[in-house]
Amino acid sequence: MPGGTMGSGSQPIGGGGPGTADGPTGGGGRTQPVTHHPKPPPPPRDPCAHQHCVVPPGPKGLPYFALPVSLTSVSGAVAVGEDLALDAGGWVIDEAVNGLTDLLGTSNDPEPEPEPEPETDTGPDSRRSDPCSAKREDRFNYEPALDGAPTGVTALLCPQDLKPPNSRGPRKGRWEPPGYVSRKDRGGNWIFNRSHILGDRFHGDWRKENIFTGFREMNDPDMKACENEMADALAARQEVYYSGQLLYANGRKNLPTAIQMTAVTSKGILFDVTVKNAPGKQVTC
């Protein structure tokens, strides 16, 4: 047959043109083995591709539990399901409770036989046995802003972090959070608040990673109701692991549509709620 004989699969023998992947490199009627080059690795995945962020590990070796953004579907404009929570690589709530229990040295299991007390460790790793001895900057993790928008905060709150009633930290700088508008409604009330992800009464700092534009009712009473539960636990000398993650269902160029608030103590879950960023009162905690 003109043009060379055909092998199995209609592959020309000796007829492939030079430079082709399956053509010969010379005569002799033999084909060059096909070389499969490995595909380049995929580009790094945006941790906020689903409008939520993976909680980064805690600074300086302190453990932080990456709680899922949401465990259940949320009604309204925000809808984050269990599949996204698993995709975020976060821990489920039970694992967070167990991890915090191990961290704080408390458990519901029967107490083991007492062991001889070890020597007091005053070295740099002594904070691992008492994480509340660490400084706030080591226990508070302000996640980096993306496109200028705050994302979230995780923190191990200790009893000494609770401020006295009616105390308020000073505002630092004259900058405004993204989307903030200074405007009042017909009743003379402010429409928006400069809201803290980690509340001021827990020494949440006034910084761009912790301040967002929230409707007044979202901040108080909706978020405040959950903060009251954390304050009660701290007043009872319990440590609290807190995670506040902003959700941006309409993109980061707009206001956050909600905040996912989760708090866990060694005794269990205080709350795991989604507070919508909308006017009007909601049932939260």
Mind explaining what this structure looks like?
The protein is of the alpha+beta class and 285 residues long. The protein has a domain at 59-107 and 129-276: Extracellular Endonuclease, Chain A (3-Layer(aba) Sandwich), CATH 3.40.570. Helix content is 15%, strand content 15%. It has four helices and seven strands. The protein has helices at residues 82-87, 93-104, 136-139, 216-235; strands spanning 140-142, 152-157, 192-196, 211-215, 240-247, 258-265, 268-276. The strands form two sheets. It has a five-stranded antiparallel beta sheet, with helices on both faces. Strand 6 (258-265) and strand 7 form a beta hairpin. It is globular. Residues 1-28 and 44-91 have low confidence and may be disordered.
In short:
The protein is of the alpha+beta class and 285 residues long. The chain has a domain at 59-107 and 129-276: 3-Layer(aba) Sandwich (Extracellular Endonuclease, Chain A).
Topology:
Elements: H1 82-87, H2 93-104, H3 136-139, E1 140-142, E2 152-157, E3 192-196, E4 211-215, H4 216-235, E5 240-247, E6 258-265, E7 268-276
- Give the helix level as a range of percent: 10-25%
> What is the CATH topology of the domain at 59-107 and 129-276?
Extracellular Endonuclease, Chain A
Record field, number of beta strands: 7
CATH architecture type of the domain at 59-107 and 129-276: 3-Layer(aba) Sandwich
Low-confidence sequence ranges: 1-28, 44-91
Major sheet characteristics: 5 strands, antiparallel
Shape: globular
> Taking all residues together, what is the mean pLDDT?
73
Radius of gyration: 28 Å
* Straight-line distance between termini: 83 Å
> β content, as a range?
15-25%
State the CATH class of the domain at 59-107 and 129-276: Alpha Beta
SSE string, helices as H and strands as E: HHHEEEEHEEE
Judged by helices, strands and strand pairing, the structural class is: alpha+beta
The DSSP helix count reads: 4
Strand order of the largest sheet: 1-2-5-6-7
